[in-house]
Hints:
Blueprint: E1 13-18, E2 25-30, E3 41-43, H1 46-57, E4 60-63, H2 66-69, E5 80-83, H3 84-94, H4 104-112, H5 146-162, H6 167-193, E6 195-196, H7 199-210, H8 222-234, H9 245-254, H10 264-268, H11 273-291, H12 293-299, E7 300-301, E8 304-305, E9 309-310, E10 320-321, E11 343-350, H13 353-362, H14 365-370, H15 376-384, H16 389-401, H17 409-418, H18 420-434, H19 452-459, H20 465-503, E12 513-517, E13 521-527, H21 531-550, E14 559-564
Parallel strand pairs: 1-4, 4-5
Antiparallel strand pairs: 1-2, 2-3, 6-8, 7-8, 9-10, 11-13, 11-14, 12-13
Helix pairs in contact: 3-5, 4-5, 6-20, 8-11, 11-12, 13-18, 13-20, 15-16, 17-18, 18-20, 19-20, 20-21
The chain binds a DNA duplex (12 and 16 nucleotides) through helix 9, helix 10, helix 11, strand 10 and helix 16.
Amino acid sequence: MPDGEESAAVPPRYALVPDPHGPGGRLQPLAEDGTPAGPPVRADRLADSVAAVEAAEHPRWVWAAADSAYAPLLPLRLARCHDLRLTEALLLGHEGRWGAPRSLGAAWARLRGLPVPADLPESGPTDEQAGLFAPDRLQLAPGTDPLDAVVAVHAEQQRRVAAIADEAARGRFRLLVAAESAGALLAAEMAYDGLPWRSDVHDALLTELLGPRPALPGAQPRRLVELSAELQQALGGRPFNPDSHSQVLKAFADQGVQLASTRSWELRAVDHPAAALMIRYKELSRLHAAHGWAWQGAWARGGRFRPEYVVGGVVSGRWASRGGGALQIPRILRRAVVADPGWLLVVADAAQLEPRVLAALSQDAGLARTAAEGDLYSALAATAFHGDRDKAKLGLLGAMYGQTSGDIGPLLATLRRRYPAAMGYVEAAARTGEDGGVVHSRLGRACPPPSADWLDLTEAADAGEAGGRSARARGRFTRNFVIQASGADWALALLAALRRRLAGMESGADRPHLVFFQHDEVMVHTPADLADRVAAAVTESGEEASRLVFGDTPVRFPLSTAVVECYGDAK
DNA sequence: AGAAAAAGCGCC
DNA sequence: AAAGGGCGCTTTTTCT
């Protein structure tokens, strides 16, 4: 397991249920298969009791969902958990019941043959007071004891995992459950700790690009007002709204410039002085609207940006975020992410993760040899593309994403000849998708089945061009899914391994903590004297993740690591 | 009036 | 440089 590798003994389990209000709650020890190993215990101060059990027994905590059970206990740190809601979603997908409600109440209702409540819409920052931690978010029927439900649903989940017939697949799925649950711990912790954010640096950058902050909250900053005026003048002087696509298209058309859209790559190809102005306006307007002063006031106060992460929010297992756009911070704003005095940032990203995942998944001996190198694309180019790295990259990306357009045909033919196992792997995944089938990540995360609309479109007797297009689109999805989702498996295992290593480090009263995770990139905020140890832990965690997820493979998954004061200096 | 869709661009 | 899959967010436009 990523978070318990060192302990030979299986850790004990404890069900944990906080009271709906107040600091109390209940615990109950459980055996590995979920049967109670002792009576429930009441705790008047749940955080104290949990801390004591954590120190004495290092258990795996079993709870309905981290946001209701773990967030109220922070800053207490727990090593392991089994998150019932995330596990329910993984199991439902694996069992072909994708999309069924996954709350504790829904799982309990299925177990008892009761009507199954639909999942509530995800919470947002606005309903914090409205009861983010309220018990009704568990969707339990009135009168149900939540501890009974946690114990019963957990036992049922353990039974369902044990029922996976193939032993190797079962082991990998257990790893997936543990890693996803570790992600739940980490997401709550990162939201609590926040990413170091220098509002003064952010503010200076905005002022440099947009002009001074407008006195009125809704007002346009000076630079945008100027650009609007210049645009209007360049396009004949008639007023129009540069934020309205249709008005922009019309304004250009009036000058004899026909555009199919206002996309910036299309504008870039236009030979008209207004095009550059329009592109600049869009860039700055977007910065102002999405990451300007209003964003700062809402999300980055008190020296920390506190996003809300959604573990497993993307079907591939990648995380999503809710509010604040944590995973879409513009690169230019990275300079506002600065370590506290006496602290440093360790920033690491997995180099060329997806082609390496393909090499490991397909066990293509030739591709694996290139993926044993530091720069996979150069090695690939040397072997198969006469040293042309661009072509090698182009071809491999096209193969992984199902690209057919452009001059990519010959590149794909070369790849097919040199790396038949790798190309066969993605093409089989595509065929499965086109036929309406389901594919899985390395650890067993399932992709969604085709929708009813899709089936109508593609399986009708007269399924014509639209049906074919739709089938090919799903083929591209499943082709990419096996790689993206297996990459997410690896990244989750990396996180779990790194989190465990960081928990063992301290410098006085301070300790390093993860503060950012974005698909294949992690950031640790650490006391400066621990930075080298943190960097080493990143490397070790990458190796551990590779071994756990892909087993014995010659493929390497190197991380490029930078130790910096400012995120903007990381690469 | 409010919800939903569309367009467009940010990140991987 | 983009293509290709995945998202979130904001604004405008359209629908109910």
